[in-house]
Amino acid sequence: MPDSGARIAAARPLSSWVGQLLLYGLFALGIGVFSQWPRYRHLGTDEALIKVSFTHTGKPVSDCVSLSAAELARLPPNMRAPTKCPRERSPVTVAVDIDGVNVLTRSASPSGLSKDGASAVYQRLVVPAREQRVTVRLSDDVRARDAAYRRETTVSLSPGQVLVIDFDAEKGGITFR
Amino acid sequence: MRGSAAFRQYGLSGWRAVERRFDTAFGSGRNPLRHLGAIGFLAFWLLAISGVVLYVMLDTSVVGAYRSIDGLAGHPLGRLLRGVHRYAADTLVIAMGLHLLREWLFGHERGFRHFSWLTGVPLIGFVFVSAIGGFWLNWDQLGQYSAIATAEWLDALPLIGAPLARNFLVADAVNDRLIALFMFVHVGMPLLLLFGLWFHVQRITRAAVLPPRSLVIGVTAVLAALALAVPVTSHAPAELSSVPPLLRLDWILLFLHPLTEATSPGFVWAVVGGGALALFAFPFLPQLARAPVAVVDAANCNGCRRCFADCPYAAIAMVPHPNQRIGRFLAQVDGDLCAGCGICAGACPSSTPFRSTSELVTGIDLPQLTVGELRRRLQDALATSEAARPLVVFGCDHGARCAAASGVDVSAFSLLCAGQLPPSFVEYALRDGAAGVLVAACRDGGCEFRLGDSVTAERLRGSREPRLRVGVATERLELVAAGPGDESALNAALSRLRQRVQSMPMLTDPHRRLHRA
Asked: Best label site of B30, B182, B433, B511, fewest CB within 10 Å?
């Protein structure tokens, strides 16, 4: 039974081998090129990066209140704690100024369904690579008017350098790393 | 909807044009564009094999991970291993993307194929998660950039309390356990992918988990040559106190990172989430009514299992025959899986037109074009043909248009699929007055129902049941591979057949027309 059309595979002409070679070559070229080119620079040559990041649990949103004897008596015996404290925590607000100019103000809500967890912030700031005055203020209590923590320092950032602004209560609050 | 249909139509025309160009170089049966899923499988196997060896060599500590992978650059075998691993991942993504595009252009997300489509969509995610995770394992500057970019992207979701990116703030935060976690992601995801692939091919029979041998050799050789010519090398070790400078980014695997930086994490989440939702929604969009499915006639089914073996979509099961005779089976069609292609009818031994019943009823048939109806039309066409040497063309609704077969001596019959043709119809046509028969199937590997072209060729060549009988004059038969748009190939084959039979005497079958009821 004669077979015809595109099914014929035997005795392929030279042009088909050249075509295959060309297509395989294009395939290799495509992968070879786009697996490493064009080169990618995600920060300018004269830029540095400041990462503002912390997890911190804010202060309770209100003061604890003492219960009167009558109020305690109305409670079941196992729940008669003399003071009642709110579970909800204050949002934590951070503000960063560079050379006196505010570049970030961020308020992070406490996590958890009852808003009793830690507040978390992660923010990247791309800044020029040079010496600059960095001021960080952090508030963690809605009852207080002023920021609870403040730190100001002069840093000299080289191109591509990463400065991490974190919060560690054990190390006195705001840290620069 | 109308715009989408037009876009798909234009896209399909363009795709077919490219496919035909590739046919010229590779031959239709070995055309890589017709084996994209199988090439994806090949890339996966190459990744698995090279990955196992790399895993053996990998030191899963922060310092050791970089050293052990970077050390591969010192040996040709190491360069080959690492290069093949990376370039196979690139190949997998490219093959997967083209496979998705092709199936969509051909409308293969709909109807009975929706299961394969829906199970294929999550595989895209598995591939990218695994591929991106592979860069972190090396823990060089590119791995550092990718890990931080991924963490920042994930942090855009309001689901995670503490930002993941905090894990990469300072060098102290990265320890051996984090590298072990990377390993878990990079190895766990391919296992999920393998499991997903098993689901993906569940509803097709004889699923190709490797392309034809020539493509296996060609693709593997290209990747190996590329691995040696353009070795994959590490950047400098990760250093979290600085931003990596110029990166040799793999744009095929890591393009989401620059896209996120150029736009925003929210935008990329919208693109990824919206894309996934759209892909999942495609099968449920309004569509044309499904073709009627195959119907089994218990009285004419002898339980031979040929339809069961030939069905491309595993839509047929064999169940005990209701006549209660021990050892007898009956074909049973699952309507949800049936493509309505008729390949089963072509496989049924009861489909022979030589049966003397006035009403030809076969064991399994398609209501829209029964074997009995095909015999009746063939009889009528040959009885009314005034040509001295009539020619019969059996074609396919999804291939070259039969109506384009030119000549007053031609009687053309377009079937649901060429595989619907029982080979005995060829002999029947020749004994009933046809001087020659042309069977037009789609190009190799181009069958709308996967196997129609191959089973037709195998049956007519006598290598598959039901076979064309040995005594049939095969010089009067021409088989042509003519897919959509190949009408010129169809007519060329027809001309050759016409020329050939001109010099042949007409058959003088003493039983001619006697088999008619």
From this structure: B511
